C-alpha cells in the first residue's frame, strides 16, 4: 500500500489544509518521476548519546500515523535506534531494551586495558535481537556512518560487513569508548564526520526526514568541565550537521533537549516523550498537509 493511502487510513485524523511544499528539493522531486525513487519516506537519525532516545518517540509518532520510514540511516545513538527499527522492533520494544540494558550507564561499560571503556551491553543487545551479524538480516534498508580514523575519512556502511561491529563502532565516543578494529582499520563514532547521515539515503527516497537531537543555540551557563566538554563536542559537529540539514525535506530538532546532557539515560521516558511530541507537531503542521496536497494531486492526475 502506498504511503499516502496508508497515511489517510490511519486511525488518527490530521487538521488543516494543504500547504506549500517546505523545500525546493521536495518541490523538484514532486514534479519529477516519483517512480525513480526506491522508497517513499526515509529518516536520518543523528548521534547524541542519551538525547538520541528522542528518536524512538519520533518513530512511534510516525508509526501511529501510518508514515513508517521505508529506509533508515543513523549515526552513533541514531545508528543503534535505527538498526533495531530496521530489524523490525517496535519503538516500544526499543525503549524497553535501552532502559533494561542500561546501555550507556557505567555499570554496563567494561574498562579495558589502555583506559577505554567497552560497550558490552550494546553488543549483547545486538546479538540477542539481531542474531545474524549481517546487514542482509534486516527487514528494512539501513545505513550507518562511522569514522575511519586510520585513513581519516567517513565511511557509510549498509551493504555488507559485520553489522554488530560497525554499529558498536558508530557508537564509540572518541577518547571515552574503545575504538573498533575492523579489517585492519580503526573506527570510532560516526558523528566526528557525519552526525546527521542524510547524504547516504537522500537520493533513495522521495521524502527525507532528518532528526537532530543536539542543541546548538545559546546557553545561559555551563557548569563544570563535563558540560564544557559536551558543549565543545556538540559545536564542533554542528559544522557537518549544517550541510546534512539542507539535504532533508523536514527536520525535527526539539529545543527542549537543551536541558538534557549526553548522559541522561535515567531520563529515558522524558526524552522519548520529547521526540514523540515534536514529531506529532511536525505531522500536524507540515508533513501531513504536504502529504494531503500530494494525494489530491495524485487523485486529480488519475482522473485526468
TrEMBL record:
| Domain PNPLA: start-end pairs | 43-202
Per UniProt, the short sequence motif DGA/G occupies residue numbers 189-191
Q: Which CDD domains does the record cross-reference, listed alphabetically?
A: Pat_PNPLA6_PNPLA7_NTE1_like (cd07205)
Positions annotated as active site in the UniProt record: 76, 189
User: Which InterPro entries is this protein grouped with?
Assistant: Acyl_Trfase/lysoPLipase, NTE, PNPLA_dom
**Span(s) of short sequence motif GXSXG:** 74-78
The record's GO molecular-function terms, alphabetically, read:
hydrolase activity
Q: Which Pfam families match?
A: Patatin
Return one Gene Ontology term, BP aspect: lipid catabolic process
Q: What are the protein's UniProt keywords?
A: Hydrolase, Lipid degradation, Lipid metabolism
Q: What is this protein called?
A: NTE family protein
Species source reads: Thermophagus xiamenensis
Amino acid at each position: 500500500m502506498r504511503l499516502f493511502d496508508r497515511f489517510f487510513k490511519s486511525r488518527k485524523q490530521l487538521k488543516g489544509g494543504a500547504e506549500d511544499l517546505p523545500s525546493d528539493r521536495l518541490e523538484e522531486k514532486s514534479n519529477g518521476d516519483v517512480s525513480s525513487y526506491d522508497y517513499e519516506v526515509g529518516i536520518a537519525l543523528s548521534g547524541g548519546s542519551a538525547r538520541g532516545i528522542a528518536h524512538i518517540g519520533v518513530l512511534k509518532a510516525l508509526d501511529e500515523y501510518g508514515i513508517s520510514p521505508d529506509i533508515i540511516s543513523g549515526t552513533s545513538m541514531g545508528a543503534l535506534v535505527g538498526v533495531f527499527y530496521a530489524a523490525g522492533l517496535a519503538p516500544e520494544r526499543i525503549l524497553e531494551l535501552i532502559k533494561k540494558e542500561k546501555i550507556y550507564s557505567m555499570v554496563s561499560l567494561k574498562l579495558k586495558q589502555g583506559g577505554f571503556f567497552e560497550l558490552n551491553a550494546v553488543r549483547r543487545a545486538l546479538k540477542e535481537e539481531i542474531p545474524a551479524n549481517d546487514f542482509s538480516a534486516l527487514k528494512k534498508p539501513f545505513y550507518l556512518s562511522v569514522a575511519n580514523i586510520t585513513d581519516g575519512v567517513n565511511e557509510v556502511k549498509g551493504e555488507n560487513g559485520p553489522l554488530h561491529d560497525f554499529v558498536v563502532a558508530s557508537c564509540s565516543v572518541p577518547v571515552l569508548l574503545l575504538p573498533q578494529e575492523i579489517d585492519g582499520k580503526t573506527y570510532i563514532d560516526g558523528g566526528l564526520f557525519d552526525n546527521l547521515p542524510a547524504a547516504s539515503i537522500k537520493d533513495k527516497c522521495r521524502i527525507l526526514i532528518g532528526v537532530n537531537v543536539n542543541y546548538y543555540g545559546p546557553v545561559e551557563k555551563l557548569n563544570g568541565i563535563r558540560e564544557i566538554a559536551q558543549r565543545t563536542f556538540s559545536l564542533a559537529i554542528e559544522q557537518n550537521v549544517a550541510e546534512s540539514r539542507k539535504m532533508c525535506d523536514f527536520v525535527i530538532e526539539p529545543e527542549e533537549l537543551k536541558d538534557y546532557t549526553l548522559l541522561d539515560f535515567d531520563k529515558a521516558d522524558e526524552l522519548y516523550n520529547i521526540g514523540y511530541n515534536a514529531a506529532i507537531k511536525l505531522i500536524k503542521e507540515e508533513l501531513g498537509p504536504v502529504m494531503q496536497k500530494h494525494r489530491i494531486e495524485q487523485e486529480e492526475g488519475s482522473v485526468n
